[in-house]
Structures are given as structure tokens and as C-alpha cells.
Amino acid sequence: MFRSPSLKAAGGAMLAMGLVLAQSAAAQDSGGGVMMELNGLTDTQNDSCALTMVTTNRLPQGLQRAAWQVAIFDTDGRVRTLPVLDFGALLAGKTRVISFVIPGGGCASLGRVVVNDVVECTADDGSDLRDLCLSNLATQNRSSIEFGI
User: Fold this and answer.
1) Are residues 76 and 46 in the same domain?
2) Which residues pair with 116 in a beta bridge?
3) Distance between CA 56 and CA 46 in Å, rounded?
4) Are residues 71 and 138 in the same domain?
5) Inter-residue contact 35 to 138 (CB < 8 Å)
6) Domain housing 2
7) Which DSSP category does 143 fall into?
8) Are 62 and 123 in contact (CB under 8 A)?
9) H/E element holding 135?
10) CA Rg, the chain, in Å?
């Protein structure tokens, strides 16, 4: 004779599944790599746009220097500039907030920002981690324009 599972048993199974999913998401959030977020855009007084970037080193080792080249596109899809965003040294687990000024027009003239390449990603021991800092780079966006890899 088939008996349907009780509500109590089904609820327990759903709770267990929820805990597993939450633990999995937390493991991904704290996983190795670097998180780069375009946090906001601010027009400056000299007809430029300041990008506020938040970067977190989630690698197990500190970085002597971390710098990425980005492509800044205008609203028509043309590359406007290829600046290097240099975050300097990042301790393991460290979050750094830096503002980068993009000259040549206000924020309304920007269409998107794409992480183009790693210029430098050097570990505290001097080893070159450029491949790791690009392949394990995750992006987030809290701005009004597109941002990603």
C-alpha cells in the first residue's frame, strides 16, 4: 500500500534542500577569485565621469598589484578609451573601493564597460597570477550601464 509522505516529512526535506542550496551559494560567494563591481557613476565638474569600482580579493593569497584594462564604450557602441584600472595591493580577503575618472564626456555618454584584459596580477610571493585573475574574475553591476567580462 502506497502512503504519501506526511507534511512534516516533506517540510523537513524542503528545509534540508534549502540549507544545502544556501551553503552552496555561500561557498561560491567566498570562493577563490576576484570580484569586481561597477558600483556607480558620477558626473564630475570637468565634463568627465567617475566610475566607482569595488573589488574584493577572494584568492587565498594577497596581491602586490592588481590592474585590469577595461574598454569604455559610448552609447553608440564605439570604443571611447582603454584605461587601466589599477587597484594596487590587495590583501587576501580585502575589499577596496576606488573611483576612476573617465574624461571626455559625462556619464550619460557611456554605454558599457567591459573588462578587456589583466595588465598585472602579482601575488605577494612575486608569482604571476594574470591567468588566474582573468579566468576567476567575477563581475557585478549596480550602475545604469552594462558592465561585464
Assistant:
1) yes
2) none
3) 30
4) yes
5) yes
6) 1-30
7) S
8) yes
9) helix 130-135
10) 21
Task: Say yes or no: 102 and 39 in one domain.
Answer: yes
In CATH, what number is assigned to the domain containing residue 55? 2.60.40
Please check whether residue 60 is in contact with residue 50, taking contact to mean a CB–CB distance below 8 angstroms: no
Give per-residue pLDDT as tens, 84-116.
999 999 999 999 999 999 998 999 999 999 999
Report how far residue 16's alpha carbon sits from residue 4's, in angstroms, rounded to the nearest whole number: 19
The beta strand positions in the chain, using DSSP E, are: 34-43, 49-57, 63-74, 79-81, 84-90, 95-102, 110-123, 137-141, 146-148
Gap between the Cα atoms of 2 and 15, Å rounded: 24
CB 67 within 8 Å of CB 91: no
Task: Say whether both 70 and 134 belong to one domain.
Answer: yes
Rounded CA separation 72/92 (Å):
28
Residue-wise pLDDT for 25-61, tens only, equals 333 344 689 999 999 999 999 999 999 999 999 999 9
Q: Are residues 14 and 24 in the same domain?
A: yes
Same domain (yes/no): 17, 48: no
Residues 72 and 122 in one domain: yes
Cell of 53: 569600482
> Residue 18: which H helix or E strand, with range?
helix 7-29
Answer whether 76's CB lies under 8 Å from 111's CB.
yes
Chain centroid to Cα 138, Å, comes to 5
